[in-house]
Specification:
heterodimer; A: about 325 residues; alpha/beta; eight-stranded mixed sheet; four-stranded antiparallel sheet; about 25% helix; globular; B: about 350 residues; about 20% strand
Chain lengths: ~325, ~350
């Protein structure tokens, strides 16, 4: 392949997610009596694209649906609706054989390096399995080297490794099948700060070397800032803001993004920034509020009756900027 | 703020808490000669990563370390208002624990009993320590729920823990800890399990309650951001040792121990553009086999022969004589500062 060194800015996206929906049916009440409960709308119409070689940071708090987005894209869970196109092919329409072939191109790194490795398999066995299944020429030694682990780790079991080492093994396992796209689902949130930095740098190096495309799922806006080209913020199953990283950090146009940013504790005792402390909890995704799903907690001074009744669409603010926000008052963002 | 000239409320001296490991693999020296003071009304942060000994330190203060396998070595001193907690008989200790020194834990899910209402659990300490009647204790519990910002406290007092969100449960934990108006609150990673917007709520609540109730807080955390915004002084721990102490502003302005320096540089920040993060190479060593000399030397960019051979004591790092007390660092660079410059 003779790919140009830099992709043209309008390259077709590698990953194209359109109106993705995942609802979980509520449990039936006893003997099917009473009114059925509403389904949990974990993901409620999410769309985005990721150009080849770029990283989209998908940010949200617990229950926002960010992990479900990643898992349904890889068909680890079946979506309720919507489409996911990978290199233009509809992932949800593939039969099991075609899906297996595609799984080579799309991989995932899980949050918890403790539970995502088989405790009875050595590192070598864990890494060799995908190589054999897909008949690949790669070696365990080369994979370990690539993620910065010494060859002696091949013979070890997961319990003999530290958290950071385990996460490196998880990354090596994802790399083993030479994917183009990796869903990184909170890959550093279980790690200590000093080790977290090691793993983030490793992911950045691998991306540069292998031209990988990442969906980087995280709850930590500071971590995302150091890895993502574009950022999407989720709240109650919906994307409420999406923009190039530099823009969203400089001028968040959705009050939820603004509040999330201001809630990040800064390692600077003199940073007396205007902290916005949101009141209340995140509502249940089974019974989201009418109108703007964020309105009950919204601190925006312009909040009005319209927010309580009318769902704000995700739209470009200002028009033509490529900065999307789902707020009626996106033109007048909170300071 | 801090009150250095006043007498310390809690004095910890040469605390050693060791664990005997299974299979005879030796002794884990989890906390190894840790000393610090907590003054009335201040917030002291203890910061460090997994395995540094910060949680075992906090558990040792209230003698909550399971024995065996753990034991607090003779020669350790934990003095509260002039009494050595380590020498108290169990009934005396119980009269202090949960009453004058209270504690909140990281996991609001597992720290509450699922089969009792939150009201019963909050009221329990008041019934035991303050001999309140059930009725009076329930009224106090409702008052406490109101104080920690739970809406409809008259209704929520009869809820079970599973009916509440994570943030609510942590508020209940705080209400439980504060019902006897303790002089010292030990908060061990109180917001680590919570979302960032809920974390902001809980930290603000703790700040407000400390102000209103005038208690001293020992805040144990791995998060330097939390330390920066919510403490007066800081103790940095690494590998069972205190490696640096300073007032919070001094520590962030002049981090002296290379571990503190590395940790600060490793924190991703929302206010700096995308860049490569500083990583501390290697891993935290095992508590059964701390390195010789300075325990940080295998990961330290400045280490030289002396660091391998000889462990430094906590040395005066200067620049912290005023409010907040001395600035100390367990590092030979304090005596040979030119080596730091040479490396840069």
């Amino acid at each position: 392949m003779t790919a140009p060194p830099a992709p043209p800015p309008v390259a077709a996206p590698l990953v194209d997610v359109r109106d993705l929906v995942k609802h979980y049916a509520a449990e039936r009440r006893w003997f099917g009596l009473g009114r059925p409960r509403p389904p949990v709308r974990a993901v409620d119409g999410v769309s985005f694209t990721i150009p080849s070689g770029r990283t989209l940071g998908l940010v949200g708090e617990s229950g926002s649906g960010k992990t479900t987005v990643g898992r349904t894209m890889l068909r680890l869970q079946e979506a309720t609706g919507g489409r996911v196109l990978f290199e233009g092919r509809d992932v949800f329409a593939l039969d099991s054989r075609a899906l297996r072939a595609l799984r080579r191109r799309m991989q995932i790194v899980f949050q918890d390096p403790y539970s995502s490795l088989n405790p009875r398999m050595t590192v070598q066995e864990t890494l060799r399995e995908p190589l054999e299944i897909h008949g690949l020429a790669g070696t365990v030694a080369a994979l370990l080297d690539e993620v910065g682990l010494d060859a002696v780790f091949a013979k070890r079991y997961p319990h003999e490794l530290s958290g950071g080492q385990r996460q490196r093994v998880g990354i090596a396992r994802a790399l083993s099948v030479e994917p183009q796209f990796i869903v990184c689902d909170e890959p550093v949130s279980a790690l200590d700060v000093s080790v977290q930095a090691q793993v983030l740098n490793l992911l950045a190096d691998l991306q540069a070397r292998r031209r990988l495309t990442y969906l980087f799922i995280a709850h930590d806006l500071a971590v995302v800032r150091h890895i993502a080209d574009d950022v999407a913020v989720m709240y109650l199953g919906k994307i409420v803001e999406r923009a190039p990283a530099a823009e969203i950090y400089a001028l968040p146009r959705h009050p939820y993004t603004r509040a999330l940013l201001s809630a990040v504790p800064e390692p600077d005792p003199k940073a007396k920034k205007s902290r916005i402390v949101l009141s209340g909890d995140v509502p249940s995704p089974a019974t989201p509020p009418p109108g703007c799903p964020f309105h009950p907690r919204c601190p925006h001074p312009l909040k009005s009756e319209r927010c309580r009744t009318e769902v704000p669409p995700l739209r470009e603010v200002p028009a033509g900027s490529g900065h999307l926000a789902a707020c009626h008052y996106g033109e007048q963002p909170m300071k | 703020m801090t009150a250095t000239p006043a007498a310390a409320l809690l004095r910890v001296r040469d605390l050693k808490t060791y664990f005997v490991t299974e299979h005879g693999r030796g002794t884990a020296r989890a906390v190894d000669e840790v000393s610090f003071d907590l003054y009335p009304g201040e917030t002291l942060g203890i910061v460090g990563e997994s395995g540094c000994g910060k949680t075992v330190t906090s558990l040792s203060i209230l003698r909550l370390v399971p024995e065996p396998p753990g034991h607090i070595l003779p020669g350790s001193l934990i003095e509260f208002e002039g009494r050595n907690l380590l020498a108290l008989a169990p009934p005396e200790l119980r009269s202090i624990r949960g009453n004058q020194i209270a504690m909140i834990f990281q996991e609001p899910m597992t720290s509450l009993n699922p089969v009792f209402t939150v009201g019963d659990q909050i009221a329990e300490a008041a019934i035991i320590h303050q001999r309140l009647s059930r009725r009076a204790a329930r009224a106090r519990a409702i008052e406490m729920l109101k104080l920690v910002g739970i809406p409809d406290p008259e209704q929520r007092v009869d809820d079970y823990p599973h009916q509440m969100s994570g943030g609510m449960r942590q508020r209940v934990m705080i209400a439980m800890a504060l019902i006897c108006h303790p002089k010292v609150l030990i908060a061990d990673e109180p917001t680590t399990a919570l979302d960032v917007t809920i974390q902001a709520q809980i930290l603000e609540l703790l700040d407000r309650l400390q102000h209103e109730l005038g208690m001293a807080v020992l805040l144990i955390t791995h998060d330097l951001g939390v330390v920066a915004g919510h403490t007066d002084r800081v103790v940095v721990m690494y590998a069972g040792r205190v490696v640096e102490t300073a007032s919070t502003t001094e520590l962030f302005e002049h981090p002296t121990h290379p571990y503190t320096e590395g940790l600060l540089a490793a924190v991703p920040r929302v206010d700096t553009p995308r860049s490569r993060l500083h990583a501390i190479p290697g891993q935290v060593p095992a508590a059964t086999a701390w390195p010789t000399g300075c325990r940080f030397h295998p990961r330290c960019p400045y280490a030289w022969e002396k660091c391998v051979a000889q462990e430094p004591p906590l040395l005066d790092a200067g620049g912290g004589e005023g409010e907040g007390g001395r600035h100390t660092a367990r590092c030979w660079l304090v005596t040979e500062p030119e080596r730091r410059q040479a490396k840069r």
